[in-house]
């Protein structure tokens, strides 16, 4: 979400057919909630296409990559690795430490900020290898209850950015949704006027 540090989301494992929708939603959630890049397993090409298509229409920047070497991505990542797991430390207990590790914390003294470091956020699908728990700098639980990678990722990113991702501006969007109490208005983002007069109700989601 900023120039100095990259937040990357890795979907570890994908079962074609069974996981298609969930993997796509991991990608859409990563994009919408402030990550810079998504790495999907190379058998998740359809999900990658969907996320790229949404980025093309609703804006970015957001990069999507397919990789066959998930283990190597984690092992060789030069930065901080967070693994989201129901068995991990409570997000509310470690979020400040994670922010500090990647240099996202407000310095108490001017000039004392930690240097920016890249962050890899790993979410599983099927069972993930034990080596991931050991490699991770932080194993983080969003509650210690079983739920979903999409929900875990959303809460973690929102905690990481402390809500700032909700105000993000999107670049190179074709279209923009006009927030309103009732209705579904989407405007052409290129050359739009501030009053949203160009809006159309698409009647679609
Ligand atoms: C449906 S779960 C499968 C968990 C699998 N049984 C295991 O032991 O790894 C898929 C993914 O959702 C995420 N997840 C599920 N519950 C979570 C929680 N409470 N906190 C953080 N992440 C969670 C984890 O990334 C997990 O790998």
TrEMBL record:
<keyword id="KW-0963">Cytoplasm</keyword>
<dbReference type="GO" id="GO:0106059">
    <property type="term" value="F:tRNA (cytidine(56)-2'-O)-methyltransferase activity"/>
</dbReference>
<keyword id="KW-0808">Transferase</keyword>
<keyword id="KW-0949">S-adenosyl-L-methionine</keyword>
<keyword id="KW-0819">tRNA processing</keyword>
<dbReference type="GO" id="GO:0005737">
    <property type="term" value="C:cytoplasm"/>
</dbReference>
<dbReference type="InterPro" id="IPR029028">
    <property type="entry name" value="Alpha/beta_knot_MTases"/>
</dbReference>
<dbReference type="InterPro" id="IPR002845">
    <property type="entry name" value="tRNA_mtfrase_aTrm56"/>
</dbReference>
<feature type="binding site">
    <location>
        <position position="84"/>
    </location>
    <ligand>
        <name>S-adenosyl-L-methionine</name>
    </ligand>
</feature>
<dbReference type="Pfam" id="PF01994">
    <property type="entry name" value="Trm56"/>
</dbReference>
<dbReference type="GO" id="GO:0002128">
    <property type="term" value="P:tRNA nucleoside ribose methylation"/>
</dbReference>
<keyword id="KW-0489">Methyltransferase</keyword>
<comment type="function">
    <text>Specifically catalyzes the AdoMet-dependent 2'-O-ribose methylation of cytidine at position 56 in tRNAs.</text>
</comment>
<feature type="compositionally biased region" description="Acidic residues">
    <location>
        <begin position="189"/>
        <end position="198"/>
    </location>
</feature>
<feature type="region of interest" description="Disordered">
    <location>
        <begin position="177"/>
        <end position="205"/>
    </location>
</feature>
<comment type="similarity">
    <text>Belongs to the aTrm56 family.</text>
</comment>
<dbReference type="InterPro" id="IPR029026">
    <property type="entry name" value="tRNA_m1G_MTases_N"/>
</dbReference>
<protein>
    <recommendedName>
        <fullName>tRNA (cytidine(56)-2'-O)-methyltransferase</fullName>
        <ecNumber>2.1.1.206</ecNumber>
    </recommendedName>
</protein>
<comment type="subunit">
    <text>Homodimer.</text>
</comment>
<feature type="binding site">
    <location>
        <begin position="124"/>
        <end position="128"/>
    </location>
    <ligand>
        <name>S-adenosyl-L-methionine</name>
    </ligand>
</feature>
């Amino acid at each position: 979400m900023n120039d100095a540090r990259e937040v990357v989301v890795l979907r570890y494992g994908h079962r074609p057919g069974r996981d298609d929708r969930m993997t796509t939603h991991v990608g859409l959630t990563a994009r919408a909630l402030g990550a810079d890049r998504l790495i999907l397993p190379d058998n998740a090409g359809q999900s990658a296409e969907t996320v790229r298509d949404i980025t093309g229409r609703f804006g970015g920047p957001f990069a999507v990559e397919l990789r066959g070497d998930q283990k190597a991505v984690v092992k060789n990542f030069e930065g901080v690795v967070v693994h989201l797991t129901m068995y991990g430390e409570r997000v509310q207990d470690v979020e400040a430490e994670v922010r500090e590790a990647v240099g996202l914390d407000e310095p108490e003294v001017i000039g004392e900020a930690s240097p920016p470091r890249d962050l890899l956020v790993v979410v599983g699908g099927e069972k993930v290898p034990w080596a991931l728990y050991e490699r991770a700098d932080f194993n983080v639980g969003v509650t210690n209850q079983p739920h979903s990678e999409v929900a875990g990722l959303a809460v973690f990113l929102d905690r990481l950015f402390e809500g700032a991702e909700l105000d993000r501006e999107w670049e190179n969007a074709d279209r923009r949704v006009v927030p309103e109490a009732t209705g579904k208005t989407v405007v052409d983002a290129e050359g739009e006027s501030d009053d949203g007069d160009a809006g159309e109700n698409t009647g679609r989601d």
